[in-house]
Amino acid sequence: MKKTKKLRILALTTIATSFLALQSAEAATYTVQKGDTLSKIASSHKVTVQDIKTWNNLKNDMIYVAQKLEISKQTTNETAKPSNPSTTTPSKPTATSHTVVKGDSLSKIAKQYNILVKEIKDWNGLATDTIYIGQVLKLSAGASVPGNETVHNNGSSGAGTSKDPTANGQAINKKTVEVANSLVGTQYLYGGNTPDGLDCSGLIYYAFNQGGLKIGRNSSEGYFDNSTQVNNPVSGDLVFFENTYKQGISHMGIYIGNNKFIHAGADGVEVSDVTYSYWSTRLVAYKRFDAIK
Description:
Blueprint: H1 2-27, E1 29-31, H2 38-44, H3 49-55, E2 68-70, H4 77-80, E3 97-99, H5 106-113, H6 117-124, E4 136-138, E5 149-151, E6 157-159, H7 167-182, E7 193-194, E8 197-198, H8 200-211, H9 220-225, E9 228-229, E10 238-242, E11 249-257, E12 260-265, E13 268-273, H10 277-280, E14 283-288
Antiparallel strand pairs: 1-2, 3-4, 5-6, 7-8, 9-14, 10-11, 10-14, 11-12, 12-13
Helix pairs in contact: 2-3, 7-8
């Protein structure tokens, strides 16, 4: 009789344990709803986008309604509590800033320092996920970045500005972007700087002169060396790329907001997106002519 009672107790304990384990497993999953994005889900569950992608073997950010996602790392009793509490990873970074290097993304940086993408954007006043090589990012709300010093891949360095253009500069930028937009579809012509044909620096020369800023004809490298880096690009600023058809600064365009820029590529003047892999891996800096800043 006693043996039967013990067996019943053991069976009930096993069922209870299994039920708790099932609840725990269910709590570690999330069902995708209409309007969800990986960034939104990561933020609400206080994890990073990269964590979710790793736990679910996702190769990109594409998700679909009703998809089941793991939103926490599965652990065992042995790994749930570290044997030595003094060796635990701090919840927040000890570093106060991070300088963006080639291959970085906000998700990667957030995972590296155990913080959220939204936190990085809030602390640095970022409206989009666009970052550029050499950009110095704050890693906490109270962090300060002395001088916003940056270092570019070509070895040059300088202090970036976080100020908006002057009123006159904004007027020039607006007109310049209008001119550049009107040139979309113009054929590519090496050395060209008129509507009959344009190359990347020729577009800059023509559009800005028509926009009211008198500048001389220069190469992408020349314009890069004679402009100031900006930490928060606005429509009308310059965007520079490296290692396209040659090593070093080799291509440029006019930023028009929302990650888009106008440039003269091999297929003529067109609008492209800086977040596309080809451009994001070659993006060097956003800059501004001194007369506009």
